[in-house]
Model the fold of this input.
Amino acid sequence: MTSLSLSPPFDFHACRVVVAGGSRGIGRSIALAFAQAGAAVSICARGLDALEQTRQAIAAHGGVAHAQACDLADPDAIKAYIAAAAEALGGIDVLVNNGTGYGFDDDEDGWAAGINVDLLAAVRASRAALPFLQASAFASILHMSSIAALRPRASGAPYAAVKAALSQYTGSQALALAPQRIRVNAIAPGSIEFPDGLWDRRSREMPAVYQSTLARIPFGRFGTPEEIAHAALFLASPWAGWITGQTLVVDGGQMLNG
Done:
């Protein structure tokens, strides 16, 4: 059977996209997918080398490519980044909040990382971007949640709780912004593998955990960042114009096995 084409199904040439946490993994793939579909794209992250490499990859698609270092745990840095991104792109139509502090440890640092980066960075970036989104004809906000938000878990409680809060915030924010025609949705990825990502490292450092997780995924493989990017493009597109306040699970059926 001939494989289906995965060329961009949506045209985002008039769209200005900001990806907070966009230099690696899922964020990088989302930024590149929007750029491939014609959007002007801005990304931020802390690591300068990965940030510049991704900016160059975005620019290779021919559109506007903006990148700026930003610590998403710093409220002032977020405000400065969003303003700079809006100036570089000429506005903002789509905001993607993809930052994570990977707060898995049940201690003060773990909880602080999750609350400040996974949750409050999304709140703060949304607040800073709102004046620009209000001027857009097709404004959309996307948050990156997780299937960890959907069930109690013995390990990684801070991460799961914060992602659950983000999913709840998605609905509340969608309700508040609907009168302004700003859609808000979230994506809850399952276990996603990419070079030097969490599951790539666990394949080497915790092979038993890696294999037991893989065994629970009905599709028999981990997901890819590109598959999350495909969902992001759909949710930001006019094809999802009547969808708001939802958290879309993209996990290859992983949650079906608990």
The two ends are 33 Å apart (CA to CA). The mean pLDDT is 94. Helices lie at 25-36, 48-59, 75-89, 108-134, 157-177, 198-205, 207-215, 225-236. Strands lie at 16-20, 40-45, 65-69, 94-97, 140-144, 183-189, 247-250.
